[in-house]
Amino acid sequence: MIVVSSCLLGMPCRYDGSGFRRPDIIEILEGRDVLPLCPEQLGGLPTPRTPCEIVNGVVMGKDGIERTGYFRRGAVLALEAISKFDVTVALLKEKSPSCGSSLIYDGSFSGRVTKGRGIFASALVDMGVTVFSEESLKGLISFLI
């Protein structure tokens, strides 16, 4: 089973209420068991919602309100959901404070990124799940072969 960020399948769950329907991703996942998840929604955040970025390990909204608890709760609930399945790999949305697998926004709300992982991506890695982003599809394809 492959865990996939719901937004990458076109589900309108991003902070701005949009999703990314990526035909290339749909094609790669065709015929495979997929579990779409949005940890931010699972954690209780609405859609649309205030953009959030990680600042010194704390998730802050652009409005200055800390939202770390929502992100941690979402990661915990997502991990509970996947514990019922044999999940070995995840395809997550890069740069997200939940799902960023190698890059996250730097906390300045300026569009700059830095090396790092989102809260859910970190939890998956700690569990031994191999995590890819939509920016590393070649690696995912090689993993799945």
Automatic annotation (TrEMBL):
Matching PANTHER family: HYPOTHETICAL CYTOSOLIC PROTEIN, INNER MEMBRANE PROTEIN
Top-level taxon: Bacteria
Protein name: Uncharacterized protein
InterPro entries recorded: 2-thiour_desulf
